[in-house]
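hey team, just a heads up i'm posting the complex here instead of the shared drive bc the drive is being weird again. everything in one block, sequence lines first with there labels, then the predicted structure for the whole assembly after. its two chains so it's a bit long, scroll down
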Amino acid sequence: MAEAITQPMAKRSASSFADYAPTYGAAAALVLLILANVVLTPNFADVDNFRNILVQVTPTMLVAIGMTFVIATGGIDLSVGSLMAIASAVAAVSLDYGAYPAMLAALVVVTLIGAFNGWLISTFKIQPIIVTLAILIAGRGVAQVISNGGQLIPFSNPSFEFWGKDSLFGILPVPILVMAVIIGLAIFILRATIFGRHVIAVGGNENAARLSGISVNRTKIMVYALSGLLAGIAGLIYTARLGASDASQVGQTIELDAIAATVVGGTALTGGRATVIGTVIGALIMQIITTSFNMNGIKFSYALVIKAAIILFVVYLQRPKSH
Amino acid sequence: MTNEPLLRMQSIRKVFSGVVALDDVNFTLERGEVHSLVGENGAGKSTLIKVMTGAYNRDGGEMFFEGKPVNFRTPEEAQNSGVVAVYQEVNLLMFRTVAENMFLGREPRRFGLIDWNKMYREAGEVLRNLGLQIDPKAVLGSLNIASRQMIAIARGVSLGAKILVLDEPTSSLTEREVGLLYDVIRRLKEQGTGIVYISHRFDELYAVCDKVTVLRDGKFIATRPLAGLERIDLVCLMLGKQREDLERKGATAFGEHHEAQAVQPLLETENLTRGRRLRNVSLRAGRGEILGMAGLLGSGRTEVARAVFGADAVDRGKVSLEGKPLKLNSPNDAIKAGIAFLSEDRKAEGIVPEWSVRENMTLAALPALTNLGVVSRAKQNEIVEKFMRRLGIKASSGEQKIRELSGGNQQKVLLARWLCKNPKFLILDEPTRGIDIGAKGEIQSLINELADEGLGVLMISSELEELVEGSSRIVVMRDGECAAELRGADISQDSIINAMAETN
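-- predicted structure starts here --
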């Protein structure tokens, strides 16, 4: 009784749909944004343009999906941009061994670094923002060391570039396909697998999760490893599309876009509530803002301010409602 | 002044998404009256209070304050009119002074700056009027919990409260401190303040309240003067039962004693030691037995539970189940072996508040509820249906969020979380703490049933009555050691208290 008084009472009791669905604010904002651009921006409503938007959003999207898992546990991963750079550099310097060994090596390295993040965070109880900030700083340095002091490394390797530049049947760019598969997998994992449920439980009440027999440390290590892996894939796709590895620039400030996309999508920064579909919508919102401003010739500096305003507005729409 | 009561609430109705929380509830408070509000969890006490103090807007009915119709839309509006709620978990600033806390947000000003002298003077006056000897310049965090609670009340008084709502004001107080609270309440009463008093403890109601209003399932049952109302009759009103029924069955139906059925114990611990908190604790518990564990706060009773469950690593000692030694590095090991543990802190270590009843109930059992690694909704629902029925969990459905349930129902969901795994040994740490009397009886009879079915139970409780009635044996903990083991005719509240209190 005593606690019943201090408890917030939700007006609407939860349906299972509402648990998984992105918050309607984000979806509405995305629809509005698209409609406004269809009307206002010349050439916006064009298949090529949409395809372009989807290709461009791919790295942010992949990183944001990893971020969603991390944030679901109540953590944060600032190191993703540097991990993209490391993946890019490792792949570029080892392309002589073949495209696939090089890509595999890159992904293994960043996944291990992600797991290292999770190990420090879970085993030594260091705050996620501190651990991943350290790796953000160190990782960029490591990436530059790998690429001979941060030089641009151009390459010509069709098997690798396939993942960034080619299209299937001439219409479906490979990055979009990869992104779609990963989105589908992520939704499935978070919703329906034991690992996904454990992720949310850890974020929702870590003590309760531990006493229910969930290995909290292992769950956290896996989450950061997953974030590292997805950052690595993002880094490889970006590098393949560019046809060169630029370790000092790849993934700069992508962690901020990824966090913004996640939060805009309705995932709670406190953990315990996460939606992959929301993150997808959030990432699309961010990309469409950027693209449409470019197309309308609005200066980048203005674009940043307006983007920030839109983020705040969408998050405002989704604030927890009191009675 | 008219003959109108201080507050009159009439035919109050409140609906949450189709669920009626309050239906045609009446409540009247006179000047200088201490009026208790009682009922089981889910009776609607908290909802009524929130309607009264503007935290909720009512969906029907009328409210008159000093004879005038009122409609508080926010807690601020209610406060400005003189209706103030003092909650159990006080929202005060630990690093600021008593006076600052009392005048937070409405500090007396002079030339645009805070008039410190005036603030300390006025705070001092309010405290003196309540008979409190607390220095208004003291930093709040340096005071004990009881004093902080009094400051919260004093803050309400300094706001000019004509009605004070006290929600479980004694839950964190010692006996002596409770006396202090009573004095404050008496003074407020003399000054004509109306007080709404919520507590689970009958002793307090009878000590301090004039009247009691009983709610059940969101409905108004009765308002009675407490003088002359027998406790058993009050329980009957709360539970909606006839007195004759109660007398036949006993208030809790929790009287049977189980004896260990097997010669070989189910669970055995040997010399569990962890720093100074646990010292050489050796226990034996049999199948079908309810082993009670008593002890004061800090005596090591919860530490025993956590050690057996693998939640805290021990320095040395052994635990074995069915004669097999267990390696206990994590709760997961204990769970796999068939041990379950219901923590004493439902909120911090039990529920995942944002999750539904279904997800909370099946949290520990997920690996068994999958098809090829995919969590099966059908298998989950099967369990949820079964246990909602068996434990009588009151929720609109398995999809309702657990934080919307009453404490008793939350506890039942957490019990189900373990029962659905068919454990061999169940550790219950304060299974009925903070739960209303109806749900309490239900949980106690359930524990009895489980023991009948052959489960071993270790029940930790600070309620001696519960231990004496429910246990077949009782271990008393003191300073991290087993101080005594009581059985059969030796079991009584007296003997437990003696064992707790003895000095080495």
